[in-house]
Amino acid sequence: MSETIAKDQPLLCNPDVVLREEDEDGGLLFNPDNNAVKIVNSTGLFIWKQFQSINTPESAAVEVLKNFEDATQEVIQTDLEEFLQDMLLTGFISKVINE
Amino acid sequence: MIENENGVKLMSTPRSVDIAVTGKCNLSCAYCFYADEMTSRTDLTTRQWLDFFAVLGKAGVMNVTLTGGEAFSRSDFFDLVDGVIANRMRYNILSNGTLINERTMEEFEVGKRRLRLESLQISIDGSSAEVHDLSRPNSFGRAIRGLQLLKSAGFPVTVRVTINRFNYHDLENTARLLLEEVGLDGFSTNEAYPCGATNRYEEGIMLSVPMRRAVMEMLTRLNEKYQNRISATAGPLALAREECAIHEARAKGQMEFPGRGYLTACGGVFDKLAVLHDGTIVPCHVISGLRLGNILKDDFIEVWQTHPLMKAMRDRRNIPLTVIEPCKACDYKGFCTGGCPGGALFLTEDFNQRNPMDCYRILIGEEGYSPDTREKSDDR
Protein backbone atom coordinates (compact mmCIF):
# COMPACT_ATOMS: atom_id res chain seq x y z
CA MET A 1 0.00 0.00 0.00
CA SER A 2 1.36 3.44 -0.90
CA GLU A 3 1.80 6.21 1.63
CA THR A 4 1.81 9.96 1.14
CA ILE A 5 5.25 11.43 0.64
CA ALA A 6 5.92 14.68 2.46
CA LYS A 7 7.03 17.50 0.16
CA ASP A 8 10.16 18.00 2.20
CA GLN A 9 11.02 14.29 2.52
CA PRO A 10 14.64 13.82 1.41
CA LEU A 11 14.85 11.08 -1.20
CA LEU A 12 17.74 9.42 -3.05
CA CYS A 13 18.08 7.03 -5.98
CA ASN A 14 19.13 3.52 -4.98
CA PRO A 15 22.88 3.71 -5.69
CA ASP A 16 22.86 0.14 -7.05
CA VAL A 17 20.35 0.97 -9.76
CA VAL A 18 21.78 1.30 -13.27
CA LEU A 19 20.45 3.87 -15.70
CA ARG A 20 20.68 3.00 -19.39
CA GLU A 21 19.74 5.97 -21.54
CA GLU A 22 18.80 3.82 -24.52
CA ASP A 23 16.57 6.30 -26.30
CA GLU A 24 16.24 10.05 -26.52
CA ASP A 25 12.67 9.59 -25.29
CA GLY A 26 13.64 7.91 -22.06
CA GLY A 27 15.67 5.12 -20.60
CA LEU A 28 15.80 1.91 -18.66
CA LEU A 29 16.38 1.57 -14.92
CA PHE A 30 17.79 -1.75 -13.77
CA ASN A 31 18.10 -2.96 -10.21
CA PRO A 32 20.75 -5.71 -10.23
CA ASP A 33 19.78 -6.87 -6.74
CA ASN A 34 16.38 -8.14 -7.84
CA ASN A 35 16.62 -8.02 -11.65
CA ALA A 36 13.79 -5.47 -11.77
CA VAL A 37 13.62 -3.25 -14.83
CA LYS A 38 11.62 -0.07 -15.34
CA ILE A 39 11.21 1.74 -18.62
CA VAL A 40 10.92 5.48 -18.03
CA ASN A 41 9.90 8.20 -20.47
CA SER A 42 11.74 11.49 -20.79
CA THR A 43 9.83 13.05 -17.88
CA GLY A 44 10.50 10.03 -15.67
CA LEU A 45 14.14 10.15 -16.64
CA PHE A 46 14.32 13.83 -15.74
CA ILE A 47 12.69 13.17 -12.38
CA TRP A 48 15.04 10.25 -11.72
CA LYS A 49 18.03 12.47 -12.31
CA GLN A 50 16.74 14.98 -9.75
CA PHE A 51 17.27 12.33 -7.07
CA GLN A 52 20.74 11.18 -8.06
CA SER A 53 21.80 13.32 -5.13
CA ILE A 54 19.60 13.87 -2.07
CA ASN A 55 16.59 15.98 -3.02
CA THR A 56 13.01 16.63 -1.93
CA PRO A 57 9.82 16.28 -4.00
CA GLU A 58 9.21 20.00 -3.56
CA SER A 59 12.54 21.00 -5.08
CA ALA A 60 12.23 18.42 -7.84
CA ALA A 61 8.79 19.77 -8.77
CA VAL A 62 10.27 23.23 -9.27
CA GLU A 63 12.88 21.84 -11.66
CA VAL A 64 10.32 19.76 -13.56
CA LEU A 65 8.07 22.81 -13.97
CA LYS A 66 11.00 24.81 -15.35
CA ASN A 67 11.84 22.15 -17.92
CA PHE A 68 8.37 21.02 -18.99
CA GLU A 69 6.68 24.35 -19.57
CA ASP A 70 3.58 22.90 -21.23
CA ALA A 71 2.48 21.10 -18.07
CA THR A 72 0.56 22.77 -15.25
CA GLN A 73 1.80 22.74 -11.68
CA GLU A 74 -1.15 20.56 -10.71
CA VAL A 75 -0.36 17.91 -13.35
CA ILE A 76 3.30 17.91 -12.42
CA GLN A 77 2.50 17.46 -8.72
CA THR A 78 0.22 14.52 -9.49
CA ASP A 79 2.65 12.86 -11.92
CA LEU A 80 5.59 13.39 -9.60
CA GLU A 81 3.72 11.93 -6.66
CA GLU A 82 2.68 8.86 -8.67
CA PHE A 83 6.18 8.35 -10.04
CA LEU A 84 7.83 8.64 -6.64
CA GLN A 85 5.26 6.36 -5.00
CA ASP A 86 6.07 3.68 -7.56
CA MET A 87 9.82 4.20 -7.26
CA LEU A 88 9.68 3.97 -3.46
CA LEU A 89 7.47 0.89 -3.56
CA THR A 90 9.83 -0.94 -5.90
CA GLY A 91 13.03 0.16 -4.20
CA PHE A 92 14.41 2.25 -7.05
CA ILE A 93 14.35 5.34 -4.82
CA SER A 94 14.62 5.39 -1.02
CA LYS A 95 13.78 7.80 1.75
CA VAL A 96 16.78 9.35 3.43
CA ILE A 97 16.37 9.13 7.18
CA ASN A 98 18.15 11.91 9.04
CA GLU A 99 20.15 10.76 12.04
CA MET B 1 20.44 4.57 -29.09
CA ILE B 2 22.42 5.07 -32.23
CA GLU B 3 21.02 4.71 -35.72
CA ASN B 4 22.72 3.40 -38.85
CA GLU B 5 22.21 4.55 -42.44
CA ASN B 6 19.40 2.00 -42.89
CA GLY B 7 17.48 3.49 -39.99
CA VAL B 8 18.20 0.46 -37.77
CA LYS B 9 18.49 1.48 -34.14
CA LEU B 10 21.19 -0.01 -31.99
CA MET B 11 21.63 0.26 -28.24
CA SER B 12 24.60 2.51 -27.56
CA THR B 13 26.14 -0.17 -25.32
CA PRO B 14 25.57 -3.96 -25.09
CA ARG B 15 23.22 -5.18 -22.38
CA SER B 16 25.29 -8.25 -21.65
CA VAL B 17 28.82 -9.54 -22.22
CA ASP B 18 30.10 -13.14 -22.28
CA ILE B 19 33.55 -13.35 -20.72
CA ALA B 20 35.96 -16.29 -20.76
CA VAL B 21 37.86 -15.39 -17.59
CA THR B 22 40.37 -18.17 -18.11
CA GLY B 23 41.68 -20.52 -20.76
CA LYS B 24 42.61 -23.09 -18.13
CA CYS B 25 40.42 -26.11 -17.63
CA ASN B 26 40.74 -29.25 -15.53
CA LEU B 27 38.95 -31.29 -18.22
CA SER B 28 39.59 -31.94 -21.88
CA CYS B 29 36.19 -32.42 -23.47
CA ALA B 30 35.85 -34.12 -26.82
CA TYR B 31 33.69 -31.38 -28.40
CA CYS B 32 35.06 -28.28 -26.62
CA PHE B 33 34.51 -25.37 -29.03
CA TYR B 34 37.06 -23.31 -27.11
CA ALA B 35 39.89 -25.87 -27.19
CA ASP B 36 42.00 -24.09 -29.83
CA GLU B 37 41.82 -20.73 -28.05
CA MET B 38 42.71 -22.27 -24.67
CA THR B 39 46.09 -23.43 -25.89
CA SER B 40 47.01 -20.33 -27.88
CA ARG B 41 46.25 -17.47 -25.47
CA THR B 42 47.11 -16.44 -21.93
CA ASP B 43 44.82 -15.27 -19.13
CA LEU B 44 44.43 -11.63 -18.17
CA THR B 45 45.37 -10.69 -14.60
CA THR B 46 42.91 -9.95 -11.82
CA ARG B 47 43.61 -6.22 -12.13
CA GLN B 48 43.01 -6.24 -15.89
CA TRP B 49 39.64 -7.93 -15.49
CA LEU B 50 38.59 -5.62 -12.68
CA ASP B 51 39.47 -2.58 -14.80
CA PHE B 52 37.38 -4.03 -17.61
CA PHE B 53 34.41 -4.62 -15.30
CA ALA B 54 34.60 -0.93 -14.37
CA VAL B 55 34.30 -0.06 -18.07
CA LEU B 56 31.25 -2.31 -18.34
CA GLY B 57 29.69 -0.81 -15.22
CA LYS B 58 30.15 2.71 -16.54
CA ALA B 59 28.55 1.66 -19.83
CA GLY B 60 25.46 0.33 -18.04
CA VAL B 61 26.00 -3.30 -18.98
CA MET B 62 23.47 -5.27 -16.96
CA ASN B 63 24.72 -8.81 -17.04
CA VAL B 64 27.90 -10.79 -17.65
CA THR B 65 28.36 -14.51 -18.20
CA LEU B 66 31.60 -15.83 -16.72
CA THR B 67 32.98 -18.88 -18.42
CA GLY B 68 36.29 -20.39 -19.57
CA GLY B 69 38.03 -22.79 -19.74
CA GLU B 70 36.68 -23.65 -16.34
CA ALA B 71 35.82 -20.42 -14.50
CA PHE B 72 36.26 -21.98 -11.04
CA SER B 73 39.85 -22.95 -11.86
CA ARG B 74 40.89 -19.32 -11.28
CA SER B 75 42.03 -18.93 -7.68
CA ASP B 76 40.80 -15.31 -7.77
CA PHE B 77 37.41 -16.24 -9.21
CA PHE B 78 35.41 -14.71 -6.37
CA ASP B 79 37.49 -11.53 -6.52
CA LEU B 80 36.27 -11.25 -10.11
CA VAL B 81 32.69 -11.90 -9.00
CA ASP B 82 33.04 -9.11 -6.44
CA GLY B 83 34.27 -6.83 -9.23
CA VAL B 84 31.15 -7.61 -11.22
CA ILE B 85 28.97 -6.85 -8.19
CA ALA B 86 30.80 -3.60 -7.39
CA ASN B 87 30.01 -2.43 -10.90
CA ARG B 88 26.27 -3.01 -10.49
CA MET B 89 25.88 -6.06 -12.71
CA ARG B 90 24.33 -9.48 -12.33
CA TYR B 91 26.18 -12.57 -13.48
CA ASN B 92 25.82 -16.09 -14.86
CA ILE B 93 28.41 -18.85 -14.63
CA LEU B 94 29.00 -21.68 -17.10
CA SER B 95 30.94 -24.50 -15.47
CA ASN B 96 31.74 -28.20 -15.73
CA GLY B 97 30.72 -28.43 -12.05
CA THR B 98 33.66 -30.56 -10.95
CA LEU B 99 35.37 -27.91 -8.78
CA ILE B 100 32.25 -26.99 -6.84
CA ASN B 101 32.52 -28.19 -3.26
CA GLU B 102 31.53 -27.13 0.26
CA ARG B 103 34.17 -24.40 0.27
CA THR B 104 32.75 -22.97 -2.97
CA MET B 105 29.30 -22.91 -1.41
CA GLU B 106 30.64 -20.93 1.56
CA GLU B 107 32.27 -18.43 -0.78
CA PHE B 108 28.95 -17.74 -2.45
CA GLU B 109 27.46 -16.64 0.86
CA VAL B 110 29.78 -13.62 1.13
CA GLY B 111 28.25 -10.20 0.39
CA LYS B 112 25.94 -10.07 -2.60
CA ARG B 113 27.56 -12.96 -4.48
CA ARG B 114 24.51 -15.16 -4.23
CA LEU B 115 21.97 -12.34 -4.58
CA ARG B 116 23.43 -11.22 -7.90
CA LEU B 117 23.88 -14.74 -9.33
CA GLU B 118 21.40 -15.09 -12.16
CA SER B 119 22.18 -18.69 -13.08
CA LEU B 120 24.88 -21.33 -12.76
CA GLN B 121 24.95 -23.83 -15.60
CA ILE B 122 26.59 -27.24 -15.23
CA SER B 123 27.31 -29.49 -18.21
CA ILE B 124 26.05 -33.06 -17.87
CA ASP B 125 26.39 -35.28 -20.92
CA GLY B 126 24.95 -38.60 -19.86
CA SER B 127 23.20 -40.60 -17.17
CA SER B 128 26.33 -42.46 -16.06
CA ALA B 129 30.10 -42.17 -15.99
CA GLU B 130 30.21 -44.67 -18.85
CA VAL B 131 28.40 -42.23 -21.15
CA HIS B 132 29.21 -38.77 -19.72
CA ASP B 133 32.93 -39.45 -19.44
CA LEU B 134 33.21 -40.30 -23.14
CA SER B 135 32.60 -36.61 -23.86
CA ARG B 136 33.92 -35.19 -20.59
CA PRO B 137 36.66 -37.53 -19.32
CA ASN B 138 36.77 -38.67 -15.71
CA SER B 139 34.29 -36.12 -14.41
CA PHE B 140 30.77 -37.56 -13.99
CA GLY B 141 30.89 -38.18 -10.24
CA ARG B 142 32.34 -34.76 -9.44
CA ALA B 143 29.97 -32.94 -11.80
CA ILE B 144 26.91 -34.63 -10.30
CA ARG B 145 28.17 -33.90 -6.80
CA GLY B 146 28.59 -30.22 -7.65
CA LEU B 147 25.14 -30.16 -9.22
CA GLN B 148 23.55 -31.76 -6.18
CA LEU B 149 25.29 -29.36 -3.79
CA LEU B 150 23.92 -26.41 -5.71
CA LYS B 151 20.45 -27.91 -6.08
CA SER B 152 20.10 -28.80 -2.41
CA ALA B 153 21.20 -25.29 -1.38
CA GLY B 154 18.55 -23.72 -3.61
CA PHE B 155 20.89 -22.13 -6.13
CA PRO B 156 19.58 -21.08 -9.56
CA VAL B 157 21.32 -24.07 -11.12
CA THR B 158 20.65 -25.21 -14.67
CA VAL B 159 22.06 -28.06 -16.76
CA ARG B 160 23.11 -28.13 -20.40
CA VAL B 161 23.29 -31.46 -22.23
CA THR B 162 25.40 -31.22 -25.39
CA ILE B 163 24.22 -34.03 -27.63
CA ASN B 164 26.79 -35.90 -29.68
CA ARG B 165 27.55 -39.38 -31.02
CA PHE B 166 28.55 -40.64 -27.57
CA ASN B 167 25.35 -39.76 -25.75
CA TYR B 168 22.49 -39.42 -28.24
CA HIS B 169 21.26 -42.91 -27.41
CA ASP B 170 21.18 -42.14 -23.67
CA LEU B 171 18.78 -39.17 -23.62
CA GLU B 172 15.92 -41.01 -21.95
CA ASN B 173 18.17 -42.07 -19.07
CA THR B 174 19.72 -38.58 -18.88
CA ALA B 175 16.28 -36.97 -18.65
CA ARG B 176 15.29 -39.44 -15.92
CA LEU B 177 18.45 -38.65 -13.95
CA LEU B 178 18.15 -34.88 -14.20
CA LEU B 179 14.39 -34.45 -13.89
CA GLU B 180 13.44 -37.31 -11.58
CA GLU B 181 16.50 -38.21 -9.50
CA VAL B 182 18.23 -34.82 -9.20
CA GLY B 183 14.85 -33.08 -9.38
CA LEU B 184 15.69 -30.17 -11.66
CA ASP B 185 12.83 -28.04 -12.99
CA GLY B 186 14.25 -28.58 -16.46
CA PHE B 187 17.40 -28.72 -18.54
CA SER B 188 18.53 -27.36 -21.88
CA THR B 189 20.08 -29.08 -24.87
CA ASN B 190 22.29 -28.27 -27.82
CA GLU B 191 24.62 -30.33 -30.00
CA ALA B 192 28.35 -30.57 -30.68
CA TYR B 193 29.50 -27.92 -33.13
CA PRO B 194 32.07 -28.19 -35.93
CA CYS B 195 34.85 -26.23 -34.24
CA GLY B 196 37.60 -26.52 -31.62
CA ALA B 197 38.22 -30.04 -30.30
CA THR B 198 35.39 -31.43 -32.43
CA ASN B 199 37.52 -30.92 -35.54
CA ARG B 200 40.38 -32.90 -34.03
CA TYR B 201 38.29 -35.90 -33.16
CA GLU B 202 39.21 -38.49 -35.72
CA GLU B 203 36.22 -40.79 -35.27
CA GLY B 204 33.82 -37.86 -35.44
CA ILE B 205 31.64 -36.66 -32.61
CA MET B 206 29.03 -34.53 -34.34
CA LEU B 207 25.61 -36.00 -35.03
CA SER B 208 24.93 -37.25 -38.53
CA VAL B 209 21.64 -36.19 -40.13
CA PRO B 210 19.92 -39.54 -39.28
CA MET B 211 21.19 -39.27 -35.69
CA ARG B 212 19.86 -35.72 -35.45
CA ARG B 213 16.47 -36.89 -36.68
CA ALA B 214 16.42 -39.68 -34.09
CA VAL B 215 17.31 -37.16 -31.37
CA MET B 216 14.58 -34.78 -32.53
CA GLU B 217 12.00 -37.53 -32.20
CA MET B 218 13.33 -38.68 -28.85
CA LEU B 219 13.40 -35.17 -27.34
CA THR B 220 9.90 -34.45 -28.62
CA ARG B 221 8.68 -37.64 -26.98
CA LEU B 222 10.51 -36.86 -23.73
CA ASN B 223 9.01 -33.39 -23.65
CA GLU B 224 5.54 -34.90 -23.91
CA LYS B 225 6.40 -37.15 -20.97
CA TYR B 226 8.00 -34.36 -18.90
CA GLN B 227 5.65 -31.49 -19.79
CA ASN B 228 8.15 -29.45 -21.83
CA ARG B 229 10.82 -29.33 -19.13
CA ILE B 230 13.50 -29.83 -21.78
CA SER B 231 14.40 -26.66 -23.66
CA ALA B 232 16.63 -25.52 -26.52
CA THR B 233 17.36 -22.37 -28.44
CA ALA B 234 19.43 -24.29 -30.98
CA GLY B 235 20.18 -27.90 -31.89
CA PRO B 236 17.88 -30.89 -32.41
CA LEU B 237 15.02 -29.89 -30.11
CA ALA B 238 14.83 -26.39 -31.58
CA LEU B 239 14.86 -27.97 -35.06
CA ALA B 240 12.07 -30.35 -34.07
CA ARG B 241 9.89 -27.43 -32.99
CA GLU B 242 10.69 -25.58 -36.19
CA GLU B 243 9.82 -28.63 -38.26
CA CYS B 244 6.49 -29.00 -36.49
CA ALA B 245 5.65 -25.34 -37.11
CA ILE B 246 6.55 -25.68 -40.81
CA HIS B 247 4.37 -28.79 -41.17
CA GLU B 248 1.41 -27.01 -39.59
CA ALA B 249 1.88 -23.91 -41.73
CA ARG B 250 2.16 -25.86 -44.98
CA ALA B 251 -0.92 -27.90 -44.09
CA LYS B 252 -2.78 -24.59 -43.99
CA GLY B 253 -1.34 -23.57 -47.35
CA GLN B 254 1.17 -21.08 -45.93
CA MET B 255 4.50 -20.76 -47.72
CA GLU B 256 6.28 -18.43 -45.32
CA PHE B 257 6.47 -17.11 -41.79
CA PRO B 258 6.41 -13.34 -41.23
CA GLY B 259 9.92 -11.87 -41.16
CA ARG B 260 11.57 -15.04 -42.49
CA GLY B 261 13.30 -15.64 -45.80
CA TYR B 262 16.33 -13.57 -44.82
CA LEU B 263 19.50 -14.29 -42.82
CA THR B 264 17.81 -13.14 -39.63
CA ALA B 265 18.97 -15.91 -37.29
CA CYS B 266 20.62 -14.91 -34.04
CA GLY B 267 19.98 -11.46 -32.61
CA GLY B 268 23.03 -11.75 -30.37
CA VAL B 269 24.96 -9.03 -32.19
CA PHE B 270 22.23 -6.53 -31.26
CA ASP B 271 22.42 -7.32 -27.56
CA LYS B 272 25.80 -8.68 -26.52
CA LEU B 273 29.52 -9.00 -27.16
CA ALA B 274 32.05 -11.55 -25.96
CA VAL B 275 35.63 -11.44 -24.70
CA LEU B 276 38.22 -14.23 -24.79
CA HIS B 277 40.50 -14.90 -21.82
CA ASP B 278 43.34 -12.76 -23.23
CA GLY B 279 41.00 -9.80 -23.74
CA THR B 280 40.26 -10.38 -27.43
CA ILE B 281 36.84 -9.01 -28.33
CA VAL B 282 34.65 -11.26 -30.51
CA PRO B 283 30.96 -11.22 -31.49
CA CYS B 284 30.41 -14.58 -29.77
CA HIS B 285 32.66 -17.14 -28.09
CA VAL B 286 31.70 -19.74 -30.67
CA ILE B 287 33.06 -17.59 -33.49
CA SER B 288 36.33 -16.65 -31.83
CA GLY B 289 38.00 -16.31 -35.22
CA LEU B 290 36.24 -13.00 -35.90
CA ARG B 291 38.49 -10.74 -33.85
CA LEU B 292 37.31 -7.20 -33.25
CA GLY B 293 40.06 -5.87 -31.01
CA ASN B 294 41.34 -6.30 -27.46
CA ILE B 295 40.05 -4.72 -24.27
CA LEU B 296 43.64 -3.83 -23.26
CA LYS B 297 44.09 -1.46 -26.18
CA ASP B 298 40.75 -0.83 -27.87
CA ASP B 299 37.66 1.08 -26.77
CA PHE B 300 35.14 -1.67 -26.05
CA ILE B 301 32.10 0.54 -26.66
CA GLU B 302 33.55 1.92 -29.88
CA VAL B 303 34.02 -1.66 -31.09
CA TRP B 304 30.37 -2.35 -30.26
CA GLN B 305 29.14 0.72 -32.07
CA THR B 306 31.39 0.99 -35.10
CA HIS B 307 33.42 -2.12 -35.88
CA PRO B 308 32.88 -3.10 -39.56
CA LEU B 309 32.51 -6.80 -38.70
CA MET B 310 29.79 -6.07 -36.15
CA LYS B 311 28.06 -3.92 -38.72
CA ALA B 312 28.37 -6.72 -41.30
CA MET B 313 26.92 -9.27 -38.89
CA ARG B 314 24.03 -6.95 -38.06
CA ASP B 315 23.41 -6.25 -41.73
CA ARG B 316 23.17 -9.92 -42.66
CA ARG B 317 19.50 -9.81 -41.80
CA ASN B 318 19.02 -7.71 -44.96
CA ILE B 319 20.30 -10.56 -47.15
CA PRO B 320 17.42 -12.53 -48.72
CA LEU B 321 17.79 -16.28 -49.04
CA THR B 322 16.95 -15.86 -52.71
CA VAL B 323 20.57 -14.78 -53.27
CA ILE B 324 22.11 -17.66 -51.28
CA GLU B 325 23.06 -20.31 -53.82
CA PRO B 326 21.88 -23.49 -52.02
CA CYS B 327 18.67 -21.72 -50.91
CA LYS B 328 17.55 -20.12 -54.18
CA ALA B 329 15.44 -23.04 -55.31
CA CYS B 330 14.37 -24.18 -51.85
CA ASP B 331 10.62 -24.53 -51.28
CA TYR B 332 11.08 -23.80 -47.59
CA LYS B 333 13.10 -20.57 -47.73
CA GLY B 334 10.06 -18.53 -46.71
CA PHE B 335 10.15 -20.32 -43.36
CA CYS B 336 13.90 -20.04 -42.89
CA THR B 337 16.32 -17.70 -41.09
CA GLY B 338 19.52 -19.23 -42.48
CA GLY B 339 20.52 -20.60 -39.08
CA CYS B 340 23.43 -19.80 -36.78
CA PRO B 341 26.02 -17.54 -38.44
CA GLY B 342 28.74 -19.33 -36.49
CA GLY B 343 27.80 -22.67 -38.02
CA ALA B 344 27.68 -21.02 -41.45
CA LEU B 345 31.17 -19.64 -40.88
CA PHE B 346 32.60 -23.02 -39.81
CA LEU B 347 30.98 -25.02 -42.57
CA THR B 348 31.12 -22.54 -45.49
CA GLU B 349 33.81 -20.07 -44.35
CA ASP B 350 31.29 -17.22 -44.76
CA PHE B 351 28.82 -16.07 -42.10
CA ASN B 352 26.65 -14.64 -44.87
CA GLN B 353 25.72 -18.15 -45.99
CA ARG B 354 23.21 -20.63 -44.56
CA ASN B 355 24.20 -22.97 -41.75
CA PRO B 356 23.73 -26.49 -43.22
CA MET B 357 23.19 -27.89 -39.70
CA ASP B 358 20.00 -25.83 -39.42
CA CYS B 359 18.73 -26.57 -42.95
CA TYR B 360 15.25 -28.07 -43.08
CA ARG B 361 15.72 -29.42 -46.60
CA ILE B 362 18.82 -31.34 -45.50
CA LEU B 363 17.03 -32.51 -42.39
CA ILE B 364 14.17 -34.10 -44.32
CA GLY B 365 16.53 -35.72 -46.81
CA GLU B 366 15.68 -33.60 -49.86
CA GLU B 367 19.32 -32.54 -50.03
CA GLY B 368 22.26 -34.75 -49.14
CA TYR B 369 24.74 -33.46 -46.62
CA SER B 370 27.35 -34.78 -44.23
CA PRO B 371 28.93 -32.65 -41.50
CA ASP B 372 32.27 -33.85 -42.76
CA THR B 373 31.59 -32.42 -46.22
CA ARG B 374 32.04 -28.69 -45.92
CA GLU B 375 30.41 -26.56 -48.54
CA LYS B 376 31.77 -23.37 -49.92
CA SER B 377 29.86 -20.93 -52.02
CA ASP B 378 31.05 -17.70 -53.52
CA ASP B 379 28.25 -17.42 -56.02
CA ARG B 380 26.34 -14.81 -54.10
Give a quick summary of the entry.
By secondary structure, chain A is of the alpha+beta class.
Structure, described:
The complex is a heterodimer of chains A (99) and B (380). With 99 residues, chain A is α+β, with helices and mostly antiparallel strands. The longest helix of chain A has 17 residues, at 73-89. In chain A, α1 packs across α2 and α2 (57-67) packs across α3 (73-89). Chain A is globular and about 35 Å long. The model of chain A has no long low-confidence stretch (mean pLDDT 90). Helices cover 37% and strands 24% of the residues of chain A. Chain B has 380 residues and is of the alpha/beta class. Chain B has 13 helices and twelve strands.
Write the layout of secondary structure elements.
The complex is a heterodimer of chains A (99) and B (380).
Chain A: E1 11-13, E2 18-23, E3 26-31, E4 36-41, H1 42-50, H2 57-67, H3 73-89, E5 93-95
Antiparallel strand pairs in A: 1-5, 2-3, 3-4
Helix pairs in contact in A: 1-2, 2-3
Chain B: E1 2-3, E2 9-10, E3 16-20, H1 35-40, H2 46-58, E4 63-67, H3 77-86, E5 90-95, H4 102-108, E6 117-123, H5 129-135, H6 140-152, E7 157-163, H7 171-181, E8 187-191, H8 209-225, E9 230-231, H9 236-251, E10 272-275, E11 280-282, E12 293-294, H10 300-306, H11 308-315, H12 341-348, H13 360-363
Parallel strand pairs in B: 3-4, 3-10, 4-5, 5-6, 6-7, 7-8, 8-9
Antiparallel strand pairs in B: 1-2, 10-11, 11-12
Helix pairs in contact in B: 2-3, 8-9
